[in-house]
Amino acid sequence: MRFVDEFRDGALARGLAQAIAAEARPGRTYNLMEFCGGHTHAISRYGLTDLLPANVHMIHGPGCPVCVLPIGRIDSAIELARRPGLVLCTYADTMRVPASQGISLLKAKARGADVRMVYSSADAVKIAVDHPDRDVVFFAIGFETTTPPTAVAIRHAEAMGLANFSVFCNHVLTPSAIANILESRDVREIGTVPLDGFVGPAHVSTVIGSQPYEYFAEEYRRPVVIAGFEPLDVMQAVRMLVRQLNEGRAEVENEFTRAVTREGNAKAKALVAEVFELRKSFEWRGLGEVPYSALRIKERYRPYDAEARYGIGYRSVPDHRACECGAILRGVKSPADCKVFGTVCTPDNPIGSCMVSSEGACAAHYTYGRFRSVPVVGRGAPPKAAPAGVPAAEVAP
Amino acid sequence: MSPVRDDYIRPVDFRNGRVDLTHGGGGRAMAQLVEELFVRAFDNDLLRQGNDQAAFAVGAGRMVISTDSHVVSPLFFPGGDIGCLSVHGTINDVAMAGARPLYLAAGFVLEEGFPLADLKRIVESMAAASREAGVPVVTGDTKVVERGKGDGVFITTTGVGVVPDGVRIAGDRARPGDAILVSGTIGDHGVAIMSLRENLSFETTIRSDTAALHGLVAAMVDAVPGIHCLRDPTRGGLATTLNELARQSRCGMVIAERGIPVRPEVAAACEFLGLDPLYVANEGKLVAIAAAADAPRLLEAMRAHRLGRDAAIIGEVIADPHHFVQMDTSFGGRRVVDWLTGEQLPRIC
């Protein structure tokens, strides 16, 4: 497959791993935060940690939009779904996040609420068109990647005069989250989270471009390298970050040149600006209230704003006491630090949202990496000679 | 004198007719449906006897029995339908014990309003699959539920077979050092179904791999009577089957991603849907675990069979108190291939 296979080439990976090991200076550590959930997933799925030298640490940031949705907003979505006759359309991962009283959208569905999984906002519009007698609400979440499609859906609905369609908007903004982390006490003052550089999000950057990160690089003196989702993309980005840190530079570099430009997607940005405006403040799970970090629907498109149509209020609900999602999202703790990780909280019975989405740090670690924290017989030794027919797999140092 | 012949009974209208509650009532209408559709299609002596059960002699060896319910949606898909799927699925479960499947029983739950044309198509597909496999449907049952209480048709098939003494193939027999083999490409069936689901229709040439595997199994047992484990990776895919076997056998496994056969079209479809082929259902493939020394001979026997052309050795069994299934990725790292969580839901961005 083009644009996929070349970026998963094992031989190139080994070469890159060696290059990174050669450039990483012994005696210093490189603490790199990957901001995007897709990167968290890629790192775990391809076992990239195996290929990086011991002094290069990847820290998982709050880049998963499902994970940063506070319980209170899911409660509102469940409340909407329970209204008789209403159809709530949502992305798949959001369905499993546990909210108050352990109810999730999936559980509400099992109890009779009409909750439907959709792949895109366009699917939700189609459901509204096909069922004029039902009120259809699209539960819109996501960073800048999914925001333009939501804008398109609203404009289509308006063009069609679709009276039974509205959007429950929970779109959040990447630069605000990065700023919040860099401003946090853990990073600025206490130094609990040593943070040397960022692996910048892939698809978000195709929309907003590389330009918005220049502020962080300059103001906070931390390099940012925007990386694609394939494992070689991530490794190349790590190498570029290591090199910048060695050379004392703090610039924005773009590894994902095949999809990202400095300006981004002008048309998409214009569409978003047309339909949405900034909220003064928005609660993020784990980060608390973050100013100017989220979007709401503009006055002009009020008929398509579910919050206005259904009078949705917001009640902040604290996380489960044992849940460390907040600390994990800020990079202060790792999944294994959470007391309930892997025992009470598992992907089948998640307590917090980090365990729900496959891009959440906890789910990624549980699914792909938890065997590292458990001594496994034979691990560390190179694999034995493979049975006939299987090419010997090499594990880079 | 009426010109109508005394023995004339108006035949079931399979073209335009629909299932209604009388077809499940136990009365004349049901008997007629059974006679004109099921008995005519399945066409064998035992069924023609018209009893509520079938009696047959049991040969030497141990009896094997297995049952499966089929609720696949959509009912018709590229490469098959719920009918042939229900025949293949149960034959395969019996065959995975190393047994020769002998007979099938089939229970139908029909929804009021279901088109008889579709039912006929499904039953004839079952009959063709059963004939081709040489495993007749010798007894059955029909129920009808009100409109809205069933999704068209649900089929439950039960199969019996016999396995000779001396052949002991079971999920707890894998041992460290054993080789793990798969009979062909994975993920075909699940992707074929996905391609028709609402909201997800995309053009593809991928067809379900649904097939009866007892012939392949017979050839395999012939070549290597001491096979340790056989299982068909249906719901939950290859990953789930390997985890099941690892747990039952109380051992671990290491497989190599590069060695797992996947069609490029299936890989591509999984890629843009955010699915992992390891977890996608198969309906015409099997996993085999055998002693390492037997592996080359077993592989040869599999590849010589029509349904095992793309067979491959994909890994080995190891000692591991945690029973993890690990995979050396083609990328060069190692990861755990865990149990499936819930149902495969694709990522959002």
Largest sheet of chain B: 7 strands, mixed
CATH homologous superfamily designation of the largest domain in chain A:
HypD, alpha/beta domain 2
Into how many domains do the coordinates of chain A divide?
A: 2
Q: Distance between the terminal alpha carbons of chain A, to the nearest Å?
A: 28 Å
Largest interface: A-B, 66 and 45 residues
Rg result of chain B:
22 Å
Shape of chain A: globular
CATH C-level class of the largest domain in chain B: Alpha Beta
The number of distinct helices of chain A, counting runs of at least 4 residues, comes to: 16
**N- to C-terminal separation of chain B?**
77 Å
Structural summary, described in words:
The complex is a heterodimer of chains A (397) and B (349). By secondary structure, chain A is an alpha/beta fold. Chain A has helices at 10-23, 37-45, 48-51, 71-81, 105-110, 121-130, 147-160, 174-183, 185-190, 203-208, 214-220, 231-246, 266-275, 306-309, 325-329, 361-369, and strands at residues 30-34, 56-60, 86-90, 114-117, 135-142, 165-171, 197-200, 224-226, 252-254, 276-278, 281-284, 288-291, 295-297. In chain A, strand 8 (224-226), helix 12 (231-246) and strand 9 form a beta-alpha-beta unit. Chain B is of the alpha+beta class. Chain B folds into two domains: 21-163, PurM-like, N-terminal domain (60s Ribosomal Protein L30, Chain: A, 2-Layer Sandwich); 179-336, Phosphoribosyl-aminoimidazole Synthetase, Chain A, domain 2. Chain B is 29% helix and 21% strand. Chain B has helices spanning 28-42, 45-48, 82-95, 116-133, 188-194, 214-223, 237-249, 264-273, 295-304; strands spanning 62-70, 76-77, 80-81, 100-111, 137-145, 153-163, 179-182, 229-231, 252-256, 287-290, 312-318, 325-328, 334-336. In chain B, the strands form three sheets. Chain B has a seven-stranded mixed beta sheet with strand order 8-10-7-11-9-12-13. Chain B has a four-stranded mixed beta sheet with strand order 1-6-4-5. In chain B, helix 1 runs parallel beside helix 4 (116-133), helix 3 (82-95) runs parallel beside helix 4 (116-133) and helix 6 runs antiparallel to helix 9 (295-304). The termini of chain B are far apart. The interface between A and B is large, with 66 and 45 residues.
